[in-house]
Design a protein that fits this description.
Length: about 130
């Protein structure tokens, strides 16, 4: 998880959410959206290297549709290809040990996905509630 300030200048990394059930995930995301006065939810979209949608991407798209139906703010999918690789490189360049890297990789990946969303409009997809 990561959030941006209202001016879209800085990004704060947050702890990853534990996935227990859909209802709990929705409550957790809605609580965070309210706490940070979020105007948008951005979800990493795990496309294949060639840009294809595999089973993981389809599952994420379905979760995004559910969020779009349940939340009162826009939900976007953001291409997340190579975000974990970039996050790993960033964290290694900071001299983190393997244990620290493993503990911070998800939040660093979320920050990169959010940075990409804020900077590159061509890789984002607005999710329709249908």
């Amino acid at each position: 998880m990561a959030v941006s300030d209202s001016l879209l200048i800085s990004i704060t990394r947050l702890a990853a959410l534990r996935r227990t059930s859909w209802k709990q995930l929705l409550r957790d995301v809605a609580d965070l959206a309210q706490r940070f006065d979020a105007q948008t939810v951005v979800i990493g979209f795990p496309l294949g290297l060639a840009g294809d949608r595999g089973p993981a991407a389809e599952q994420v798209a379905e979760v995004a549709r559910k969020f779009a139906k349940s939340l009162n703010i826009p939900v976007y999918l953001q291409d997340e290809r190579l975000s974990t690789v970039a996050a790993s490189e960033r964290l290694r360049s900071q001299g983190l040990a393997k244990e620290e890297l493993a503990a911070r990789i998800d939040s660093e990946s979320a920050a990169i996905i959010l940075e990409d969303f804020l900077g590159e409009q061509q890789d984002r997809v607005l999710v329709k509630a249908d």
